[in-house]
């Protein structure tokens, strides 16, 4: 959206400058006059675009906060899913937690669950702090 806005501002500035030159004096067709008119039109278009951007930003500011909180909560739920998926595997391998045939499976599953549980809880914690 930023690139498109800059291109649109440039096009509007050029058209405004071109229409301003034709209305002022058709004989003023020098390079300096063209450059000055285009710069002035570009500045006016830039101020207009800046005002529009500030207005849109002011309108979207409350939604940005709510959107951030919602994003953190959804992320927390998605990080909680692997914990729920790996829980039955951890339960089946619990008998060989210290040594046994499923010792490495137990350790890997426990490690994955701890990491994703931490990510989920921290995501909900950050959402709560906002």
How would you portray this structure in words?
- The chain has 130 residues and is mainly alpha-helical.
- It has one domain (2-129).
- The protein has helices at residues 2-24, 31-92, 103-129.
- α1 (2-24) runs antiparallel to α2 (31-92).
- The protein is rod-shaped and about 85 Å long.
- The model has no long low-confidence stretch (mean pLDDT 81).
Beta-strand percentage? under 5%
- Approximately how much helix is present in the residues? over 70%
Q: Taking Cα atoms only, what radius of gyration do you get, to the nearest Å?
A: 30 Å
The number of strands is 0
Straight-line distance between termini = 27 Å
Low-confidence stretches: none
Element string (H = helix, E = strand): HHH
Number of helices: 3
Domain count, please report it: 1
Shape designation: rod-shaped
Most strands sheet: none
Structural class: mainly alpha
Average of pLDDT: 81
For this entry, give a set of tags.
130 residues; mainly alpha; 3 helices; 86% helix
List the helices and strands and how they pair.
Blueprint lengths: L1 H23 L6 H62 L10 H27 L1
Brief characterization of the structure:
With 130 residues, the protein is mostly helical. 86% of the residues lie in helices and 0% in strands. The longest helix has 62 residues, at 31-92.
């Amino acid at each position: 959206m930023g690139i498109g806005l800059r291109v649109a501002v440039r096009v509007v500035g050029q058209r405004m400058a071109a229409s301003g030159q034709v209305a002022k004096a058709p004989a003023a067709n020098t390079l300096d006059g063209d450059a000055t008119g285009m710069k002035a039109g570009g500045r006016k278009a830039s101020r207009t675009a800046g005002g529009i951007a500030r207005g849109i930003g002011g309108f979207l500011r409350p939604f940005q906060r709510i959107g951030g909180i919602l994003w953190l909560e959804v992320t927390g739920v998605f990080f909680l899913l692997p914990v729920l998926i790996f829980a039955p595997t951890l339960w089946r391998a619990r008998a060989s937690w210290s040594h046994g045939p499923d010792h490495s499976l137990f350790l890997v599953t426990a490690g994955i669950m701890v990491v994703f549980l931490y990510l989920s809880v921290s995501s909900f914690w950050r959402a709560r702090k906002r």
